[in-house]
Amino acid sequence: MDIADHAARTAGAPAVIVDGWVISYGELYARSQRVAALLHDAGLRRGDGVALVLPNRPEFFEITWGCQLSGLYYSAVNTHFTPDEVAYVVSDCEAKAVFIDASMAEVAARLLETNPRVDLFVAIGGAPAPWRDYESALAGAGDPPPRSDGTEMLYSSGTTGRPKAVRRPLPTDGAGSWAQKVLEYSLTGRYGMTPQSIYLSPAPLYHAAGVNYTMAVHRVGAASVLMRRFDAEGVLRLIEAHRVTHAQFVPTMFVRMLKLPADVRARYDVSSLQCVIHAAAPCPLDVKRRMFDWFGPIIHEYYGGTEGFAGSVIGPEEWLAHPGSVGKPFSPVHVLGEDGAELPIGEPGELYFEGGPEFEYFKDPEKTASVANEHGWRSLGDVGYLDEDGYLYLTDRSTFMIVSGGVNIYPQEVENLLVMHPKLVDAAVFGVPSDEFGEDVKAVVQPVEGVTAGPDLAAELIAYCRQHLAGFKCPRSIDFDPALPRDPNGKLYKRRIRERYWQGRTSRIV
Length: 510
What we know:
The protein has 17 helices and 27 strands. The chain is α/β, with parallel strands linked by helices. The radius of gyration is 23 Å and the shape is globular.
């Protein structure tokens, strides 16, 4: 089902709730059809592209559903990109229409200068000339085109280089986006969601989890509570106010919530929660156990990528029996060493998956081919291992593995330890040049507000690491940063930090 079905059956049911503003399924469908009509009037036809440069706001779904119900590709652009980075994505996805937030005047000006193939520029919240005003444009649109299924074309985060779009063929079965169909099945079959459920979405909508999960919730017919941006106490306030039943987070959000004062956490009633989902990065064991103690045994985890060929899920009871696992993979997985040979149970290596849907990195056949080996198995670049029962464990990204004195070190383990230190908010661990060992382990950390950064704290943190980890894994030095760069969905831009230490030197990471 999609919003057209729910608009016909339960037009008054809430679809999107944001800042106390409720948009019903009837309103969402009607508005999406105005968007479809606007795009059709501008000459867009099946298979053409639309770009959204928008923060979390309700109009986002009017546009994505307008595209999906009229046979168009839609690409949500990271709103934290620079104007040049946004211009690159809009050009790369071959967008013929762009929707942007009126507050982003500098980005809007750059797009006008650099993207001549765009036929329709629309601004939401007031239109800087010569952009068209969103409300006026919708009011003047003609009739919507006939139904024709479109789909998302989303970009990688860009944490390890230029972002690339994952593109699949447009649906032809009338059932909508492949990703949303899979997620709809998971929401109803695994997570118990019904049209009466209330889903909290704190993620940025340009992220795959943000847009695809929320649109899958719309396919179920449930209500989505949208956060403009993540705020730890704000999450608790919304759960209590709307009696939220389902929510999705990333481990960084868990950490921020756990670091709220105990009296603040105790102030809010979260008993309405029936299911909490998390993904995006390995979750420190202590963090997840503490979330179980707080929310109860309702926390589910999944692993996967926008590409769609790798995936696993694990429920609360399974995780308690296999702590740290992301579940049993949906398809056969092979753990390979640097020589391409399969590694034994328990030994970490790069993960390669059999099967899965076809996709391409748009206009980049070399990158598309690069994820597969000679067997046709494909890799997301993640490192992990399997246990005797077939459960998968992630250790890190292969690109961030540290090679020090010939020993492989996975920095995620060190980051997971440091981030739970009471004097720290965040941590990044990576390799830096070393004439003796090739690479040394370096940590750059963000102290809690009011904590003094300096040699004494660095010594304390190194000693803390040595209490819990083998000495060769521990940082040899620690630097401080008042705000480590993360996107609002918790992705750490480690490459940006690491590059500070590799300028003028040869790095393994390209």
